[in-house]
Design brief:
The chain has 440 residues and is of the alpha/beta class. The protein contains twelve helices and 19 strands. Bound molecules: S-adenosyl-L-homocysteine and iron/sulfur cluster.
């Protein structure tokens, strides 16, 4: 979501003559777009600001200026504190007000004109944003924002605000305009993306499944993904779309957080571990090769060894293609931060290592099974090494291959020849031996 927001900020600033700088040293303005979801991310903001202060000082000595802005959820949650602790910051804006950047920049350019704008405007920012610029063949498209779920560990409902779904027509227009500019893959974004219930021209609220079917009709759009979903809002229509819509990629990030019913209840996740297992079964019945990914939190307040074992059991039962795991991080103002029985850091460390290990083995096995398989890969960026191109498999694995630069931004059928922990090495299928099974 922050990557999307940052791109949209660049779109808003383009008419003012701003273009992206190659390095921070070359910039006239620096915007830190921040994340507040875990403490570590929030802390980084102040260390980054320390570096920018020096840059601004050096500029001032040479008689030129630097506008420093802090955006995103840290700005939303700690705006006043940022202005007080960092007097060299010119603009502080929340995630719902960046469409007002031109006015903010004008104000900040005047002497003493510092700006704090952390409103939740009644009119959504989307109504004021310019058409998005396509930056390669794969694009994010925000369809839903905010969250009403109030998981007890999470700051998002406080920093992003209440759930809002963009109208169907606005999303279809944005997707069409992206497709006209060469975008082949769209990833629909929302904090609780499958809570989507946008207004449509037939006057009914459409769910995400219905929206995906409509987007799949658009010429040029070849692949659709969405993130991040909540198990509780995964309805029949969306599950059916996984079986019916070829363009919907066979990968789903479906955070579960814990395998213990007691902890899931304390987290206010509104489902049990077995309900999650059943969802996975139903998704796989609709799309047998669906790869699942998830998020896990270890060391939530009151998590016992039995609770933690239940998480490991769930991981083994489901089998994830990849997943993220985090130590519980108390966030100011959330109910869990005030709960008793906070778990000791050393216990969190041990549990995180165990979860990592189990998930890592599953990811390695999933990647290993792909050797010899053929994937259509959208090659959307240069690889790390000279002559390499990089893209994503239908299952979201990073796939690299040595290929001519002319193939950048195209879909190519590749044959996987190597598996690593977080990536796959591949060759063009024409170089591959014939007679291999094709897939996806
Ligand atoms: N909307 C998504 C995820 C939002 S935040 C969902 O419903 O799951 C992304 C991930 O960060 C979460 O899935 C969770 O695993 C993690 N996270 C959020 N708050 C956290 C906290 N206080 N401590 C540790 N991890 C957290
Ligand atoms: Fe946070 Fe996701 Fe829960 Fe919403 S559903 S409160 S974004 S973890």
């Amino acid at each position: 979501m922050n990557v999307y927001d940052s791109a949209r900020m660049a779109d808003v600033l383009a008419p003012l003559g701003y273009t992206p700088a190659a390095a921070v040293e070359d910039a006239d303005m620096v915007i830190l777009n921040t994340c507040h979801v875990r403490e570590h991310a929030a802390e980084k903001v102040f260390s980054e600001l320390g570096r920018l202060r020096l840059l601004k000082q050096a500029r001032a000595e040479r008689g030129s200026g630097l506008i420093i802005a802090v955006a995103g959820c840290v700005a939303q949650a700690e705006g006043e504190e940022i202005l007080a602790r960092a007097p060299f910051v010119d603009i502080v804006m929340g995630p719902q007000t960046y469409h007002r950047l031109p006015e903010m920049v004008a104000k900040a350019s005047r002497a003493g004109g510092r700006v704090l704008d952390t409103d939740f405007p009644a009119e959504p920012k989307f109504d004021h944003l310019p058409a998005p610029t396509a930056r390669g063949p794969s694009a994010f498209l925000s369809v839903q924002e905010g969250c009403d779920k109030f998981c007890t560990f999470c700051v998002v409902p406080y920093t992003r605000g209440a759930e809002y779904s963009r109208p169907v027509a606005a999303i279809v227009d944005e997707a069409r305009s992206l497709a006209e500019r060469g975008v082949r893959e769209i990833t629909l974004l929302g904090q609780n993306v499958n809570g989507y219930h946008g207004e449509s021209s037939d006057g009914r609220g459409w769910g995400l499944g219905r929206l995906i079917r409509a987007l799949a009709e658009l010429p040029g759009i070849e692949r659709i993904r969405y993130t991040t979903s909540h198990p509780r809002d995964l309805d029949d229509e969306l599950i059916a779309a996984h079986g019916a819509v070829d363009k919907l990629m066979p990968f789903l990030h479906l955070p579960v957080q814990s395998g213990s019913d007691r902890i899931l209840a304390a987290m206010n996740r509104q489902h049990t571990a077995d309900e999650y297992r059943r969802l996975a079964d139903r998704l796989r019945a609709a799309r047998p090769d669906l790869a699942l990914s998830s998020d896990f939190i270890v060391g939530f307040p009151g998590e016992s060894e039995d609770d933690f074992d239940a998480t490991l059991r769930l991981i083994r039962d489901i089998g994830f293609a990849q997943a993220y795991s985090f130590k519980y991080s108390p966030r100011p103002g959330t109910p869990a931060a005030a709960m008793g029985q906070q778990v000791a850091e050393a216990v969190k460390e041990r549990r995180l290592a165990a979860v990592h290990e189990t998930l890592g083995r599953q990811a390695q096995a999933f990647n290993g099974d792909c050797v010899g398989r053929r994937f259509d890969v959208l090659l959307d960026r240069p690889g790390r090494h000279e002559g390499q191109l990089l893209g994503r498999s239908p299952y979201m694995q990073a796939v690299y291959a040595t290929l001519p630069e002319s193939m950048l931004n195209t879909v190519q059928r590749l044959r996987v020849v190597e598996a690593h922990a977080n990536s796959l090495g591949a060759v063009l299928d024409s170089e591959a031996a014939t007679g291999e099974r094709a897939c996806a």
